[in-house]
Design goal:
mainly beta, 5-stranded antiparallel β-sheet, 9 strands
Length: 117
């Protein structure tokens, strides 16, 4: 059943997370998430899935040429790394109450450590 009210997708990865790549040519590599694209279910990881991009000469880059650039990966192919154990972990969500206002936080399933501060 589609969401009626809060249409924002709930993803297990956020910008700045350390992730492990689970599939593809870069399987087993680790990197930091640079950008999350929720509408396409994709994530951009630093130094992973590098593709060659041909650029025209500009004032900033008068030479132009072939540049290596990160390409997005599907979000199902990455797994968050638990900061305490330095191992990949699944992500859960729980609601914490503070001062009468509750908020949802992500936590590591293996250690129970909160990923959101």
């Amino acid at each position: 059943m589609p969401r009626k009210f809060n249409k924002q997708k709930k993803l297990h990865v956020k910008k700045g997370d350390q992730v492990l790549i689970l599939a593809g040519n870069d399987k087993g590599k680790r990197g930091r998430v640079l950008m999350v694209l929720p509408e396409k279910d994709r994530v951009l990881v630093e130094g992973v899935n590098m593709k060659t991009h041909h650029e025209k000469p500009t004032q900033e880059n008068p030479q132009g040429g072939r540049m290596k650039r990160e390409a997005p990966l599907h979000i199902s192919n990455v797994m968050v790394i638990d900061p305490t154990t330095d191992e990949p972990t699944r992500v859960g969500r729980k609601r914490i109450e503070n001062d009468g206002k509750g908020r949802w936080v992500r936590y590591a399933k293996t250690s129970g450590e909160m990923l959101d501060k």
